[in-house]
Design brief:
The protein is α/β, with parallel strands linked by helices. The chain is about 25% helix and about 25% strand. The strands form six sheets. Strands 14-15-16-17-18-19-20-21 form an eight-stranded parallel β-barrel.
Amino acid sequence: MVWLKRGVAWAVLSAGLLTACGGGQTDQEASARQQAADAGVVARAASSTGGADAVPVSLGVANVRKAASGRVAVFRFYNTGTGAHFYTTSIEEREAVYRTAAHMSPEGEAFYAAGAAGAGLSPVHRFYNTQTGVHFYTISEAERANVEANLPQFTYEGIAYYASQTPAAGFTPLYRFLVVRQGVHFYTASEEESLRLQATMTATHRYEGVGYHVMASACASPPCGPTGPNRPRVFIALHGNNQLADNAALDAQWTYVRQNAHGIWGNNAKITDEQSANLIRKMTTRNLITEYPVPPGTSAWLPLLAFNNLQVLYPDMDQSLNPEAIAFYTSDTSRWNGRTVAQAEAIYTDPTAPASRRYGAVYTGWQPQNFDPTNPRYIYANANAVLAFRSSKGTFIECPLGACTSGKLGEAFRRAIRETHVRGRPFIWFASNAFSTSPGWLAAFQATYNAIAAEGLWRQEDAIAIVNYDGVYPKLPETLGGGVAADTSMGLAYWALQQRAAATP
């Protein structure tokens, strides 16, 4: 519907793509607009009522139908300056905002919609208000006709996508709120977020019920896509596996993992060079991702030798190892400075450097709370941390046991995955046991893995690094027999490898 107040249309954005109206455009947003235009996107500016933070918000008319194919992800940004939200379905547009507007914090894929007509679906129509910069979406044919007949300032831009006006299998409610101060609407498909707003923010967010129903996930149902779901690769950490490196009598208890693991995670704490080399020699894979901490202090933090010279000490590995990436880690966002990733790229991806000092890419590593907007170490509260994250070629997040299955950490974990994927980068789940010796790591690991898979968030280039801190959790056997994974660190690897194998056509 459209509410009219003193000649201004307050649009209930029926498709959930919220923009606010008014104001001027900053240099950052101007740059984003130009980049979007260069990518073939007609970007229009919209901002909060205060007019301080305009952002490019949409595709042009010609691109609307082009975008409507398959499932459409609706991507959400949070404006840290105004507290408003910005939504877009355009990959080009969201990339332009992501690259150039640091104050726009990406919050991932908010929900999904159908890109083509189908039984039980209705078209969602999009209008652009040329006077206010507001985009208006409606699923009502009567409302569409009324806007076209009576509101000439609204330019019709075609069908954005399709949704259901009634509950249906595979669909979820889209909850609608009026942001009272700004006169715009906020939409969420998260029941948890909706209930939290109703309980704590009634003064600013007036609940208006269910707008309509959007798709529940990125996948119609398992398997996702024609050839099965994407599944991550599996990496085995050096740390904690000293015993497996030293004792050849144990080799038969992890044969499948030794032969099928996709990579080695170079966390070389508390393991000697000789043990590391012995462990690597037992494994078929030669892909290596080296982890290195970012120490405190801002001067010359980057180590000259990020790995412990295995290829120098053991020449037989000089040609066999494939250093895929070096991953610098810290949960303290203040440790980053403006030079870190660029400096690392110059040193470790230099094609003229010796093989023992050359990596394919530089990754950054974090804790899930770094992606929680309520945490003091939120990544977007530190410009240097944002720079490091956005310029790195991959992201890893440590999340032990079942900590990231649900709740705040679960939301933050998923946000990190989505923000990494939107840049076309691989995501690595650093799955650690938090020094626990209690049974149940396998079940907790499976719960997290399956929750991410159910949302269609895994990509084939992603990875899981299984880290058994200090080797305190049982390491062997990998199975209990009959293909049943054991509740051990190698059992986790075996189970994850089976998921990957089942997804490979």
